[in-house]
Write a structure and sequence with these properties.
rod-shaped, ten-stranded antiparallel β-sheet, 183 residues, SH3 type barrels, 33% strand, 10 strands, alpha+beta
Length: 183
């Protein structure tokens, strides 16, 4: 009888150790899996939901996350305006769940970076408001987008881009942008 009790005790200890090892292994695998999830994967899973994006030099931008690409987020704010946000300017995002979605855009999708999105706005000739890192807000039309900068023809938002309405053309480094709001 004592031998049975000893064997039962040893078997219980073995099963407890095996269960603890399994719990530790699952926890370690979960940590490793979480370490491979990018911010873009988390944001991609939140597409279509309301978020709040915190940026330097400005108040937070609230809106529905409608799209994202390499280096940019596109939100539609409460007024229905599109707001393009460079990911490099993001200080934090509220409203994103714990889910993640992998990138399925392929090689072409990975090339559609911030400059590509800005060139689309320049091609449309839409009036914009640029928010800069220091809190400055500039209005006008994007004339061209270079490798690391853009040219903004500054004019009032209600005026079309005409030579007489343009106050000046400003070269703006892309690194200075925190948002581009289309009117």
């Amino acid at each position: 009888m004592r031998w049975h009790a000893l064997f039962d005790d040893l078997e219980a200890q073995f099963e407890a150790a095996a269960a603890a090892e399994l719990v530790a292994e699952v926890a370690e695998r979960s940590r490793r899996e979480a370490a491979l999830v990018s911010m873009a994967d988390r944001l991609r899973a939140a597409t279509g939901t309301a978020v709040q994006v915190h940026l330097p030099g400005t108040t937070a931008v609230r809106g529905r996350l409608t799209d994202l690409g390499p280096g940019w987020l596109l939100l539609t704010d409460e007024a229905g305006a599109e707001v393009l946000v460079p990911v490099a300017a993001v200080l934090g995002v509220v409203g994103v769940g714990a889910r993640a979605a992998p990138d399925d855009g392929g090689a072409v999708g990975r090339r559609l970076d911030l400059r590509w999105a800005l060139r689309g706005i320049a091609r449309d000739r839409t009036a914009v408001t640029l928010g800069l890192r220091d809190g400055t807000a500039l209005t006008g039309t994007l004339d061209r987008v270079g490798l690391d900068h853009l040219d903004l023809a500054e004019h009032a938002l209600g005026e079309p881009r005409r030579a007489g309405a343009v106050r000046q053309v400003r070269l703006v480094p892309l690194d200075a942008l925190v948002l581009v709001r289309r009117s």
